[in-house]
Structures are given as structure tokens and as C-alpha cells.
Amino acid sequence: MAETVRAVSASCAFWTVARHELLLLWRDRSLPIAVALLLALICGGLYNGLLRVDERDELLVALLREQDSRVDNLAAQLRTAEADKLDVYANPTNPSSLLASGAGLRYAIMPSAPLAPLTLGQSDLLPSYFRISGRSEVNFVYDSDIENPWHLSAGHFDAAYVAVYLLPLLILALSYNLLSAERERGTLRMLLAQPAPLAVVVLAKVAVRGLALLTPVAVLPLAVALLARSASDFWNVAASGLLWSTSACVYGLFWIAVAVMVNALGKSSAFNAIVLAGVWVAVVLVAPVTLSLAVEVIHPAPSRIEMVQKLHKLHEAAMRHYADLDRTDYETLRDPGPRNGKVYIQPTTLRYFHIQREVSEMMRPWMDDFEATLDRRQQFVETYRFLSPAATTFEAMSDLAGTNLGRHRHFQRLASDYYRQRLSYVFPMILSGTAVSEADLRDMPRFVWTEERSGHGIWRRATSLAELLLLTVALCVFSVWRLSNSTRSLGR
Amino acid sequence: MIRTRKLCKYFDGDRALDSVDLDIAPGEVYCLLGANGAGKTTLINILLDFLPASSGNAWINGLDVSVEPLETKKYVAYIPEQVMLYGTLSGVENLDYFVTLATGRRLGRERLLELLGEAGLAADAAERRVAKYSKGMRQKVGVAIAFAKDAKALLLDEPTSGLDPQAADEFSRLLKKASDRGVAILMATHDLFHAKQTGTRIGIARRGKIVANLDASDIGHADLEALYLDLMRA
Amino acid sequence: MIAVVAKRDFIGFVRDGRFSWVGGLALVLLLSSIAVGWRHHSELAQERRAAQLEGYETWVAQGRKNPHSAAHLGMFVFKPETTLALFDPGLEPYVGATVWLEAHEQSDLKFRPARDATGLRRFGDLSAAFVLQMIGPLVVLLIGFDAFAGEREQGTLRQLSSLGVPPHRLLWGKATAVAAGVATLLVPTVVLLLAAVFASGDLGDSLARLAWLLLGYCLYLGTFLFSTLAVSAAAPNSRVALIVLLAAWIVATVVIPRAASELSRIQYPTPTAFAFDSAVADGLEHARRQALEENFHVKRSQDVPIEETGRALQIDDHAAYLVFDKHYGALWDVFARQQRAQETIGLLSPLVALRGLSTGMAGTDLAHQRDFAAAAERHRRLIQDMMSDDRIVHAGAEGYNYQADAELWRKVPPFDYASPPSGWALARCWPNLVVLAAGFVLSLLSAVASVRRLRPL
């Protein structure tokens, strides 16, 4: 019986305090200002994200259009080709044209994932298309798009940035003096003189703040993703969007728990502000960059210098291997063909493709090694990411948005496969000097994008969320213990 | 030494000081009695130029406090109800700091301890951090500051409230010592007992006006109390 | 008197533990980032030197071949690391340091280190500059926020005023105390950097760069110092002062630089590689065709007489130079416009100006990258022209099938690039210095004004 009475009074206390708190925060304008600020920031971030992703999507469409029109053009030329009018360096019947860096260029394209506008992640550092010609693989897989390095170094202003960097600050700004202000005003003693348990009072106070600040972060990005990006696959977008919102909320709860814990220590408002600012600096600014530095020291990226050196030497060696082909046959130059389904392939052309293929194959082990090192680095980060909830959340968000290294690595593998596929289609034609027909051109393999099988990905996201949640719960347990044991000292 | 003429102060139309005329000569201890809100602290704040007067003038050592605020402070020392000091420094360190600021001279350690000793603070206490000091100990540091800068005027705001009787008595004796050296002392208080014991003259303030000016030797304890209560009731 | 106030304040924030925590953390970060930076820097510098030398040797040792073929092998060159890059790597992680000098094509700087990094790279790079830029102001703010507000709350401000301490003396004293706190971060940094400069042997110019850097950081931290004191004197209590200052710090160091970068990009969009390459390809196509027709009156390159092929190649290359100059020039100009736009928005935060100055003096900004890229392209053209000249002189009727040997390869000088002098760098980033100085003066004036209004009650 006594238990029931207590429970009723606890819930009653909760609602009374919550109502009162809402009124207070509304009166001193801190809540409306913070929420308005948050809304403005999220809208700005979402707008910028949409802008960037639209830009990229348009580019990808333009690339395909250009590729198609180029192929159509070549097909038309093949239909009307008159042997003696052809420019030897732009001869569509020559099989090397299928791999030439102008006419034979093909794009491997990674479409942006539905949630890309929410987390732009590394999408500016990792290209979303490759230009694949007959040049060796190393020549295209490490390409990057043009960008002002200042922008690359500044990072993006997107919804994830608002959630990871700024949301905690707004949470802390509203709750750094959750209890200390009451004590400094002298109202805490009055409050403690009432029969409401302190933990319930604190819970009600943070519930108001949490609800006000987490709702926009949870709802707005999800809504934008569903409205703007779910044309094809509503349920899939809804599921990953919900996961994104959950990550943001769990991260927000972590910060609320931190604020409560610091308040439970019973120090002054200024002390709380300093400590909380310090925690923010440590978690958001320092821990990720320190971890990043640790990766560079413990698992350094393979040296690009060494790679370039190796590439240069391989190139020189390959040139030696095919030195006998280093000549132009002027007799046939003026009359490139085709004759009876055959084209005369210039020795220099043959040499070029041999060299490119040899360099590509000889670089393969180095590239595999390189990938393995990148994997080890990523593994290291995943092992130690718990050191910074900010890093954990950011990784989860870019993972969901498909703007992380993982999806790009998958893309790179697909592109490499495509390169080899094309080579094995065209190379025999070059060796045999087979003239290209329109059918050959149309039958060239095209790049097909397939999404990575995501079972592993979901597991990874779930564990990182669970880790963060666990940490949050631990902080809460400590706070509740501390609050219920220190009612007297807090009232002093 | 301390002098005011027609000194008035209004706060949003409320009269805190109303045409106060005051003359305190060197060696005199003037005790200003009055209830809370009578204007005692306001008077001291104006003498220290912490507040500007609404009208009228105040002089210390012949210098108008609002015209030459920095110059007047060479001659005045201030001891509030709670002497505020830096908690992380020891008594000696605090004294060293304030004295150097007040006089521009560094006194030796020995001399500082001697000054604190004169003010009644034992050497071992003087080495401890001020955060652990009692109110009385803090006041002794305040008095030591006044001694050290050789102030000609001493402004005291409720110095004895909250002191235990022994500490308050010790403090009264310190003030006597100071007035014997020719310091003019203005002490705002509502402690009738110590006002009578320490003061040479006693003023009673009510709603910003000084309604009575008495010679301490002319009046007994009981009469003073009766008079005070009479005036307050009026 | 100023020294007395300064000493008291210094003891105050040292004894209450704030300084030891914040300053200690910042110092540890600072020293470890310099140590890591130094190691990384010296390894990298050595590796690049050795690799470039070896690349040149490979070039010279290539066998007999047609000079144009040799131009296709080309060589690769690296941007040498400046000594102060260990302090501020600036844009280095976001621009490649490698250029492949090859026939026909002007190449970008390749292999951005950031591309090989983990997702954490997005949080920034831990360098000494990062620590001083982000954590430095925080140290200033945390030791200075209660300089006046705290004294007022303790009641000691009344005590000080009753002693006749003039407020401006208090200001200078407190400023000295906070400056002394900051100096404990700056001095070890400068000492280590001096050691690095002496170790690198490149004294005169690096010292000048270091001096300008130091001036920039002093102005930057000084701006925060006096703003902190101004707010502390004006705020009703130390809690308000602290919150206002923390908010200002976050806006100035975290929000504005990022927002300025994004806004400048929206204002001046960067062309995509696709658009850029298409424009270059179209330009090249047109220029080459025109050159062919004007010089040889033919439409197809195979119709050029054999003995003229060497000259045709050279004419073709020279036509391409103009196209490259136009398009690459325009691209760098877009970058420069973006940077200017970013710096205009960045007038709101001294950090934007400081980054410009810091990277400029460390030799890791856009201007230095551009200078290096231009030098590399000059060398590429030199190789290409030497190869074509030799063919024009010696090939005759052999045309492409003429072969040259090591004697020709040796004539090509190794690529020797030195970073431009400090005066050159200063000429490019003096506006940043002016902005920093203006910010400093403004903060100083506001501190003086707010201290003048200081009331002890």
C-alpha cells in the first residue's frame, strides 16, 4: 500500500516539476532561443547537404549522358566510316579506341545513398565516379575530384555536424546548472524540503530539456530524407533514417547524462560549466584527433612516395620490355584501315597497352597490401572509438549515409573488376587487330553498381549504438546513486 | 578629516541619504547607529566613491572624494562587515598584496607579521590560507591593512556584527589603539553596546537623516538605548 | 603595482587548479603534436628527397629510346616540406605533394593524404597549430573569465578600490597574469620550433617566418585575452561571463570557419573534375586542330611529312600550353576567390585570418601549393621541349623512329625547387595580419572601455 502511494506521488512530482520547469525555461527565454537556434542550424545543415548531394547526383547523370552520347557518336561513325578519310589517331574501327582516354572512356559510378544529405562524411575526399580507360589501374583508383583544399580541411556543415558538434553544446547550455542554479538561488533547500525524491525532480528537469532538443534532431532529418530521397524504396529509407535519428538521440542522451552527473557532484554553476566545456572539448575536439594521430603513428598509411617510386620504375622496366615496339610504321600510317575486318595496329599503340597492363598487374600486390593496411587502420579505429562517443556517432551516421570509407572501398573493388573485365574484352581484339563493329561497341561491358550486402553493417551500427547506450546508462546509474546519497550535502 | 555637507542620495526616487552633514576630527571615533536601510552603508559607499552622490559633497583629508577619488584613497582604509580576501592566499600574502598596492612599497616579511601581530593575529595563523579564517581573523587582516597604509580615516561597516563577545571586545581595543594614533574613524553599526564603549561621539540615523548627535561621555548605556528606541518609533 | 596584481592573479589561478588542468592538458597536446610532427616531417622530407633523386637516376639510366617516348616516361617530383610544416601542416593533408611530369598533360598534385585516412580525419588534424588555435583561446578564457567578475563576487574588488588602485592598472596587471599563463604554452613551442629550425639548417628565412607566425599567434591570443577581460569586467557575475565567453569561443573557432567555408563554396562553386576535364579537352582539341591547319595546312596529323613530325609535335605542345594556362589559371583563381570570400565572412572570427597567416608562413597554404605546381609544370615543359628540340635537330627522315641516348637524358636538369622567401609569403597574407591587428586593437579598446565603467559593487 505504502509503495503505491509513493509511486503516485513520484509521478505526480514528475509532472509538477516538468510543468514548472517548462514555464521557467519559457519565461527566461532560454528554451525557445535554444530550440530556435537548433532548428535554424539543422535546416541550414540539411539545406547544404541536399545542395551538395543534388550537385553530385546531377553530375553523375551528366556523366552517363555524356558517355551515352559519345557511344552513339562512335556508333554513327562506325556506320559511315570511310577508310581513307579517317584520322589515324581517332579511328573508331581501331579496337584501341574502345580503351582510348578520350573516346573509350567509361565511367564507374557510385550513386549517392538515400541518407547522403544527412551526413556528407568523406564524400568530398572519396570520389563517387572513376574514369576508366586503358591506363593502368593505379592511374584511376586514387583519383579524386577537384576541390579547394580549404573546403576539404574545413569539413562539412551538415545535419551530422549539427548533431555531433553543436547539439551537445545546446544541451549543456540548458542543463549545466540544472541543480547548481537552484542551490545558488536558494530554492534547492525549499525543493528538498518537499517529499519528492531528488532523482525524480532531476528526471523531470532533463526530460523537458531532452524532449525539446532531441525532437528536432530526430524528426527533421528523418522527414527530409523521407520526403526528398525515398522515391524508390520507402521502407528501406525509413529504416535507415530511423537508425540515424536513434543514433542522434542516443548521443544526445549521453550528453544529458554527462550534464546530470556533473550536477550531481554538487559544485557551483561556474565549476559545472568549466567541467562540461572540458568534457566537450575532450570528447568532440581532442579524442577524435588524438585517435586519428594514434592511427598514423601505430598503423601509418603506406607511403605514397614509395608507390610513386615503384610505379616509375615499373614503367621504365615495362618500356624496356617492349622497346622493340617503340616505333611508328609510317608505311601504314597514312592508310589506317579497316581492310577485311582487320585494322593495322601501330607498334606504339600495342606497346602502350602492353605497358599499361604490365604496370597494372605488377602494382596489384602493392595495392592489395595497401588495402589491407587501410583495413587494419579502420579496425584500430573501431576498437578504440569508444574513447569518443562523438567519433562513434559520426562513424555510425556516415556509415548509414553511405559516405564512409567502407562503401567507397566496395565501389573501388567493383571499379577494379570492371577495369579488368573491359581489358579482357578489348585486349584480344587489339592483339589480333580486329576492326570494331557497331555490335562490338554496344556489347562492351557496362559498369553495374550493386549495393554491398549489409548484414555486417547493421550489426556494426547496432553494436556501436549499444556501446554508447551502455555508457549513458552507467552515467545515469552513477548520478542516481549520487543524488540519492547526497541530498543533504546538496541542500547546504 | 571626514566631512560631508548636504549629502543626498536617491535610488529611483527613494531617499537613501538626506542632506547629511558630518565632521569627524582626527582621533575621534564616530559611531553611526541606525536600523537596516537607514543609509549607513550608502554613506560609506559614497565616501569611498563606490557610489556617486546625488547632490552635496564629501571630503576626506580636505579632498573631494568624487573629484579626486584615487588621491583620497591614500588616506582612507575600509573594513566591511565581512573583510573580503583571497581564499587561496595566506593572511601574510593577502596583506603583502594589498599593502603593496596601497603604498607601492614592499614591506618585509617580518614587518608584515609584526603588523598582523599588532592587529592581533598570531604568526602561525597568518601563514594559513584565508579560506579557513574566521570572520574575526579576516577583520584583523583588514585592520592590519589600515595600520600598514597609515590611514588617516577609517571607514567601518558593521564590523562587530557576528563576532563573538571576546572577538568584538578585542576589536574595540584595536580601534582605540587606532584613534590614539590620531585616525578619524567612522563606524556604522547597530551594536549599541560597542558604540557606547568605543565611540567618542554617537550619531543616530533614520531614513537617511542624522536625527541625533551625542557625545559618548554625556550619556549612559541605558539612556542611549531608550533614546534610540524612541527615535526609531517616532 | 602592475607586477603585484599580475603575481597575485597568477598565483590565484595556479592554486585553484584550473590552470594546471587546462594548461597542462594543452601543453601535453602541444608537445606531443610537435614531437609527432617533427618525426613525421623529417622522415617525409628525407623520403621525398631520396625518392626524387632516385627518380632522376631512373630517368638518366633509361635506355636508348625515342625522345618523345622518354617524355612519356617523364619523372615525378615532390613538394619539399618546409620546416614549419611540422607546426602547421595546413592544407598539406588535403593537397597531394606529388606531380608526375609527363608528355602532353599538365597533371594535378596527386595523392591527398586525407584520402588515405580513416573517417576520423573529418574531426581535424592534431598539430601544434590546431592546439594553439582551438585550445589556446580556451586556456585564456578559463583562466581569465573571473578576473574582474570573480573579484567582485569575493568582495575583494571593493577592497582594491578602497585602496585607490586605478582600474587601468588592474587591467594591465590581470592581462599580464593571463599572458604569463599563455606564455607557458607559447615559450616551449617556440623553443622547440627554434630547435627544429636550427636542426634543419635553413636559418634566415625560417626564422623570419617563425617571427611572423609568433606575431600572428600573439595577436590572436591577445584578442581573446582582452575580450575575456572586457567581458569579465562588464558581466554581472562570473557565471554569465563564463557562459558568454564559452559561447563566443565556440562560435569563433568551431562554427564560423566551417560556415564561412561552406558559404564561400556556395557563392563560388568549384568546377567538377568532369566539367574541368571536358573544358580542357575541348580547348585542346580546338587548339591542336587549328595549329595543325595553320602550320601544315592539313587536317589529320598523319598527313604531316615525316621530317616535320618533330616540329608538329612541338607546335602541338605549345598550343596546349596556352590551353592549360587558361584553364588551370581559372581554377586557381576560383580557389583564390573562394578563399577571399571565406576570409570576408571570416572577419567575424579572428581564427579565419589566423589560419591564412599561419599556413602562409608555414608554407602550407594555397599560394605555396600553386607556386610549386607552377614550378613543376615549368619543368615538365622544359623536359618536353628539350625532347622535341632534339628530335627536330636529329631525327630528319627517321621521324618517330629516331632514338636518343643517355647523353640527352643527362642534359635535363634535376628538378630543384625551393620554397619562396618569407617576403613573398608575407606579400600574400598581410591582409590577414592587418585583420588580426585590428581585432586585437578592438578588443583592447573594449577592455579599456569596460574597465573604465567598472563598479566595485
UniProtKB/TrEMBL annotation, chain A:
<keyword id="KW-0472">Membrane</keyword>
<feature type="transmembrane region" description="Helical">
    <location>
        <begin position="210"/>
        <end position="229"/>
    </location>
</feature>
<feature type="transmembrane region" description="Helical">
    <location>
        <begin position="241"/>
        <end position="265"/>
    </location>
</feature>
<keyword id="KW-0812">Transmembrane</keyword>
<dbReference type="GO" id="GO:0140359">
    <property type="term" value="F:ABC-type transporter activity"/>
</dbReference>
<feature type="transmembrane region" description="Helical">
    <location>
        <begin position="271"/>
        <end position="295"/>
    </location>
</feature>
<feature type="transmembrane region" description="Helical">
    <location>
        <begin position="31"/>
        <end position="50"/>
    </location>
</feature>
<dbReference type="Pfam" id="PF12679">
    <property type="entry name" value="ABC2_membrane_2"/>
</dbReference>
<protein>
    <submittedName>
        <fullName>ABC transporter permease</fullName>
    </submittedName>
</protein>
<feature type="transmembrane region" description="Helical">
    <location>
        <begin position="159"/>
        <end position="179"/>
    </location>
</feature>
<dbReference type="GO" id="GO:0005886">
    <property type="term" value="C:plasma membrane"/>
</dbReference>
<keyword id="KW-1133">Transmembrane helix</keyword>
Automatic annotation (TrEMBL), chain B:
<dbReference type="GO" id="GO:0016887">
    <property type="term" value="F:ATP hydrolysis activity"/>
</dbReference>
<dbReference type="InterPro" id="IPR003593">
    <property type="entry name" value="AAA+_ATPase"/>
</dbReference>
<dbReference type="InterPro" id="IPR027417">
    <property type="entry name" value="P-loop_NTPase"/>
</dbReference>
<dbReference type="GO" id="GO:0005524">
    <property type="term" value="F:ATP binding"/>
</dbReference>
<dbReference type="InterPro" id="IPR017871">
    <property type="entry name" value="ABC_transporter-like_CS"/>
</dbReference>
<dbReference type="InterPro" id="IPR003439">
    <property type="entry name" value="ABC_transporter-like_ATP-bd"/>
</dbReference>
<feature type="domain" description="ABC transporter">
    <location>
        <begin position="2"/>
        <end position="232"/>
    </location>
</feature>
<protein>
    <submittedName>
        <fullName>ABC transporter ATP-binding protein</fullName>
    </submittedName>
</protein>
<keyword id="KW-0067">ATP-binding</keyword>
<keyword id="KW-0813">Transport</keyword>
<dbReference type="InterPro" id="IPR051782">
    <property type="entry name" value="ABC_Transporter_VariousFunc"/>
</dbReference>
<keyword id="KW-0547">Nucleotide-binding</keyword>
<comment type="similarity">
    <text>Belongs to the ABC transporter superfamily.</text>
</comment>
<dbReference type="Pfam" id="PF00005">
    <property type="entry name" value="ABC_tran"/>
</dbReference>
From TrEMBL, chain C:
<dbReference type="Pfam" id="PF12040">
    <property type="entry name" value="DUF3526"/>
</dbReference>
<dbReference type="GO" id="GO:0005886">
    <property type="term" value="C:plasma membrane"/>
</dbReference>
<feature type="transmembrane region" description="Helical">
    <location>
        <begin position="19"/>
        <end position="38"/>
    </location>
</feature>
<keyword id="KW-0472">Membrane</keyword>
<feature type="transmembrane region" description="Helical">
    <location>
        <begin position="170"/>
        <end position="198"/>
    </location>
</feature>
<feature type="transmembrane region" description="Helical">
    <location>
        <begin position="130"/>
        <end position="150"/>
    </location>
</feature>
<feature type="transmembrane region" description="Helical">
    <location>
        <begin position="240"/>
        <end position="260"/>
    </location>
</feature>
<dbReference type="InterPro" id="IPR021913">
    <property type="entry name" value="DUF3526"/>
</dbReference>
<feature type="transmembrane region" description="Helical">
    <location>
        <begin position="210"/>
        <end position="234"/>
    </location>
</feature>
<keyword id="KW-0812">Transmembrane</keyword>
<keyword id="KW-1133">Transmembrane helix</keyword>
<dbReference type="GO" id="GO:0140359">
    <property type="term" value="F:ABC-type transporter activity"/>
</dbReference>
<protein>
    <submittedName>
        <fullName>ABC transporter permease</fullName>
    </submittedName>
</protein>
<feature type="transmembrane region" description="Helical">
    <location>
        <begin position="433"/>
        <end position="451"/>
    </location>
</feature>
